[in-house]
Design a protein that fits this description.
Blueprint: H1 4-18, E1 37-39, E2 46-48, E3 52-53, H2 64-79, E4 84-86, H3 94-104, E5 112-117, H4 122-136, E6 141-146, H5 152-164, E7 168-173, H6 181-187
Parallel strand pairs: 3-4, 4-5, 5-6, 6-7
Antiparallel strand pairs: 1-2
Length: about 190
């Protein structure tokens, strides 16, 4: 398992590689070609195909020492055309960290924020999703996903209500195993 420093080094290298000659003599990122994008079928909105996941890397305690590298990563990510930032309540403090950075650096309008619900029961799901909105410091999330199909039918019902009410822009499902593809296809 890699530690946070190694993950940040890899992420930083990836951001630099994405930007070609990312930083000129001015110390500011140089212009880059447009990122590769795809349309969201339901809205036509374009999103870059590469996003920023927050698992482990953004699960850090409060304090400038642990968070400052993440501030720089998220600012550079947005500056270089990145938009999709994916988190989850199961990623420890990641939602709080992303929320703090977005608020302190005025990045919310530049980012497409995705998170997940991964609990059982309607009320538990509502509580968890409201907690995510609070931690992310947003009144609406761009994408809320039912994680690993956990109580998927229950949560999709709630998410459709939330979409109608403007608390989420898009809804989705996730799973990490190929053996679950048939169930994902059934749901979508």
């Amino acid at each position: 398992m890699m530690n946070r420093r190694e993950a940040l080094q890899i992420l930083g290298t990836g951001i630099v590689a994405m930007s070609s000659e990312a930083v000129g003599q001015s110390g500011r990122p140089a212009p880059v070609d447009e990122p590769i994008t795809r349309r969201i079928p339901s809205s036509g909105e374009l999103l870059p195909v590469i996003g920023l996941g927050t698992w482990q890397t953004f699960d850090v305690a409060e304090g400038a020492a642990g968070r400052q590298p993440l501030v720089e990563v998220l600012k550079a990510f947005a500056l270089l055309g990145g938009t999709v930032v994916d988190s989850s309540p199961m990623y420890g403090r990641s939602e709080n960290v992303v929320g703090d950075i977005m608020q302190n650096e005025s990045l919310r309008s530049k980012l497409f924020v995705a998170t997940k619900v991964w609990t059982t029961g309607k009320q538990a799901g509502i509580t968890q999703m409201n907690d995510s909105l609070r931690k992310l410091r947003v009144s609406r999330v761009d994408l809320m996903q039912v994680h690993n199909l956990q109580d998927v039918d229950t949560h999709l019902g709630t998410l459709n209500d939330w979409k109608r009410d403007g608390k989420v822009r898009h809804i989705g499902v996730t799973h990490y195993t190929a053996s679950s593809h048939d169930e994902v296809a059934r749901v979508v």
